[in-house]
Design brief:
The chain is mainly alpha-helical. It has 5 helices and no strands. The protein starts with a helix and ends in a 9-residue tail after the last helix.
């Protein structure tokens, strides 16, 4: 389903790169672990409320967790603007 949605887009690149302006605005935020966990919890709760199968929730959470260091600027992303 996701791949069919991507191919229906009119943009020449089905999965465009993040907007540099968005990235610069994101760097100004002071997101911390508590914020990240709260958003992830809301995300999971919403998926459960929509009765999404647990298998897909687990897959989605795994993808979200791959962004944690970049969002919190920790790990390999520490000190990067």
């Amino acid at each position: 389903m996701v791949s069919s949605l991507c191919t229906q887009r009119t943009h020449p690149n089905p999965l465009p790169r993040p907007n540099p302006l968005f990235r610069s605005q994101q760097n100004k935020t002071k997101t911390n672990k508590r914020h990240f966990n709260a958003i992830a919890t809301h995300f999971v709760d919403t998926l459960k409320e929509l009765k999404v199968d647990q298998k897909y929730i687990d897959e989605s959470v795994a993808v979200v967790l791959t962004t944690k260091d970049a969002i919190l600027k920790t790990g390999a992303y520490a000190g990067k603007a």
